[in-house]
Amino acid sequence: MFPELAPYRGRTTRLHPRPGRPGRHDSHVGGPTPWPGGEPWPVCHETHQHEAEGYVPDEIRSARAAGAQPQSRPWPGAGSPGEDGPVPFVGLVQFFLRDVPGLAAGPDGADLVQLISSTS
């Protein structure tokens, strides 16, 4: 259809996210993100506007335990703002090698891709 784009082609995977409760060991968009116990969770050390700081981790844990989402995250005034200092990153997606045809293993045979981001 667009021959001039042919040099840029590559393998793609079409996602079909559905509402649900993915586990830590499932590929998913949103949901729980496993992290090695000995490593600190990544945080953003940049300065943030007060209304964009996000939520303190206890609010997120409490909401998840109740099977809910923190209210209107990440909009201003929807919860307690993060304390001054580093703001925790948020897990966006994770894909396991077994669920994405053609995905190559990572360093040392890693079979998991995670995308995390700052809320600002």
Number of β-strand runs? 5
Helix-strand sequence: EEHEEE
Stretches where pLDDT is under 50 for at least 5 consecutive residues are 75-82
Please identify the structural class as seen in this structure.
mainly beta
% residues in beta strands: 15-25%
Helix content: under 10%
Radius of gyration: 18 Å
Largest β-sheet summary: 3 strands, antiparallel
Task: Strand order, main sheet: write it out.
Answer: 1-4-5
How many DSSP H or I helices?
Answer: 1
The structural domain count equals 1
Mean pLDDT: 79
Give the overall form: globular
Q: Roughly how many Å apart are the termini? A: 38 Å
Features:
120 residues, mainly beta, 3-stranded antiparallel sheet, two-stranded antiparallel sheet, 1 helix, 5 strands, 16% strand
Description:
The strands form two sheets. Strands 1-4-5 form a three-stranded antiparallel beta sheet, with no helix packed on it. Strands 2-3 form a two-stranded antiparallel ribbon. It has one helix and five strands, in the order ββαβββ. It is globular, with a radius of gyration of 18 Å. The protein has one domain. By secondary structure, the protein is mostly beta strands. About 7% of the residues have low confidence.
In a nutshell, what does this entry contain?
By secondary structure, the chain is mainly β. Helices cover 8% and strands 16% of the residues. It has one domain.
SSE blueprint:
Blueprint: E1 28-29, E2 43-44, H1 57-65, E3 87-88, E4 90-96, E5 112-117
